[in-house]
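Entry 12.
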Amino acid sequence: MATTTPDIEAVSQPKPEKPTAPKRSYPGALVVVEGIDGSGKSTQLYLLKRWLEIGGYRIHFTEWNSSPLVKSATRRGKQRRLLTPTTFSMLHAADFADRCERQILPLLHGGYLVLADRYVYTAFARDAARGCSPHWLRNLYSFAPVPDITFYFRAPLDVAVNRIVAGRPKLKYYEAGMDLGISLDRAESFRIFQERILNHYDQMVETDHFVLMDGTVRVNKLQRLMREIVGQRIDLGRFAPKKK
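Predicted 3D structure (tokens):
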């Protein structure tokens, strides 16, 4: 008897899992912004931070590669151009681990709303673009608490790159990805490197439940949307000043 192959369209496909709230043992909340350079993420987080500060909310701000314990070592490595992709990645992981232990986790347990300008997804995108294993990177940062909201600001590559190039007198060596030998032209190397990073970010939108934000929208409109999403997903009353 001849057998027939079922039509691909007729085969039921598994439905994608709905985002679920991360399991946690602390009363605080964590809001993260991600995106390539020039996507507008830092501007939007700063505006959100100021809005919350004016409202008297208990917040803490942290940014990528800012631990005083590790920053000097990273700076010396950059100045001497000694950093391999793996060394660079591990220095950033040490920086994050220090901030996580000393700032992020204690404040989450203390009932603060923590705002992070870049988080572990920066490492997943940048370090993978430098050739590090995505699986190795995930294991390296497996201790990191899962954000309540991860805003991914996405701008077209040319728009983001032009914003950075127009505002910088000179691109830095590692910033431009010159260590990868992509191109002898620093601006071209930067563009190719950012494109690689962008591709890795795009792959995480569904798997890591990013909230996609259009980085080309007007600043004030984008900020209103960001505040609305934060208000919908997080009970800001938990972080409001206590009434006397």
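Annotation: Residues 1-21 have pLDDT under 50 and may be disordered. Strands lie at 29-34, 59-63, 113-117, 149-154, 211-214.
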